Amino acid sequence: MTSISSRRLRKELNEIHAEGCPTGITLLSADNFETWFFSIEVLGESLYQGEVFKLMFRFDPSYPISAPAVQFVVDQDSKAPVHPHVYSNGHICASILGTEWSPVLSVSAVCVTLQSMLASCKVSSSRPVDNDRYVRYAPDNPKKTRFHYDGKRPMR
């Protein structure tokens, strides 16, 4: 029997293959229904204009009821943007990935939201104030962190 999660992910993947990704977003790999990778290019006049970042989505069996674990990939080839809502390990403090998650949201919608978050940054940016402490003790899965959202800066 096919799970709700795999049916939903198959539907989203079929739509991406049929219609393509939104502008500036590219599916890099989706070899299974556990982990997908996308690149997002920041469009418009912003601090990150033209930069490309890599996102990793991890899905558990309760997707889409629960949000995917989403983070920027940080490795020898990829880096996380320096942004008040992005930790240096790639974890993202965004309400859409936590308390504001809705099962009607799609992977593409999350990509567009994060692309927009970066595109709206017009002035010099910095990491969250607790970046060093957070990264030192952060779990591998950002969903295991309880972020508090005040709309201005991340708080744990």
What does this structure look like?
The radius of gyration is 15 Å and the shape is globular. The strands form two sheets. It has a four-stranded antiparallel beta sheet, covered by helices on one side. A two-stranded antiparallel ribbon has the order 5-6. It contains three helices and six strands. β1 and β2 form a beta hairpin. The N and C termini lie far apart (39 Å). The chain has 156 residues and is an alpha+beta fold. The chain has helices at residues 4-19, 107-119, 131-137, and strands at residues 25-29, 35-41, 52-58, 69-72, 148-149, 154-155. The model has no long low-confidence stretch (mean pLDDT 89).
What's this model, at a glance?
The chain is of the alpha+beta class.
* Strands in their spatial order, largest beta sheet: 1-2-3-4
Secondary-structure class:
alpha+beta
Shape verdict: globular
Mean pLDDT: 89
Weakly predicted, low-confidence segments: none
Largest sheet at a glance?
4 strands, antiparallel
Question: Could you tell me the radius of gyration in angstroms?
Answer: 15 Å
Assembly context of the chains: single chain
Instruction: Classify the helix fraction into a percent range.
Output: 10-25%
Instruction: Write the H/E string, N to C.
Output: HEEEEHHEE
